[in-house]
Design goal:
Family: Belongs to the binding-protein-dependent transport system permease family. HisMQ subfamily.
Number of strands: 0
Structural class: mainly alpha
Helix content: over 70%
Strand content: under 5%
Number of helices: 11
Mean pLDDT: 84
CATH superfamily: MetI-like
Membrane topology: Multi-pass membrane protein
Transmembrane segments: 61-82, 103-121, 127-147, 205-222, 234-253
CATH class: Mainly Alpha
InterPro entries: AA_ABC_transptr_permease_3TM, ArtM/GltK/GlnP/TcyL/YhdX-like, MetI-like, MetI-like_sf
CATH topology: MetI-like fold
Keywords: Amino-acid transport, Cell membrane, Membrane, Transmembrane, Transmembrane helix, Transport
Amino acid sequence: MAMSPRRRARVIRWVQYAVLVVAVAAFLVFADLATLRDVFFDREVFAEMWPDVIVVALRNTLIYTACGFTFGLLLGLVLALMRLSSVGPYRWLATGFIEFFRGVPALVVFIALGTGVPLAFPGREIPGGTLGIATLALGLVGAAYMAETIRAGIQAVPKGQTEAARSLGMPASRAMRSIVIPQAFRIVLPPLTNELILLTKDSSLVYLLGYTTATLELAAFGREVLNQEKNLTPLVGIAICYLLITVPLSIVVRRMESRAEKAR
């Protein structure tokens, strides 16, 4: 006798649970838990990392990410408006910028700004030192992605909103600034938050610029402790710190998406 679709789905679900339980049990039986604990969860190494991993590395990562995201968001808004402009050169410039920085790895951008600018312009440096270069590099990469997100959000706003504003005598620029853009940002807020998560992880490339004790971010800090201790525990420590940033942001994104779905 054939099973009903509901019962079949229930059986498949319980089989998946059983496979998961067997996999966990096999790991606990065959893995060398003592060695794993010593290599990845050494309490003495964790103690050695504290509190610098929070007050220096995590703080710097947050600063680099926040500065890069702010710059990228502003530049992305400008690029999005240029992409939607009726002036051809504006569209061409914005399209070229977006395609270039979406196609080039962030690592190349960091290296180019960190070493290429001093070579191309002897005696000149990007203001702000490591923070300035990190802000510019993260902002340029983030802006290329955020520009397309913002452009899609602007185009998703019903045209009737703009037509209603124009019928009341509102100039096109003011209608865009006061009506269209605020609604567009409500639409694109979840994907922009996802971009913030990506920039948080890209901030690990700051180590390519060189660093001092004061400018260490999470990835560079982990490498330093790893070289000193010859133990993989620092990698677990910085992974936890990254999760402290990204998991709450992911929860915020899910809640915003759920709220948007309910609003529809």
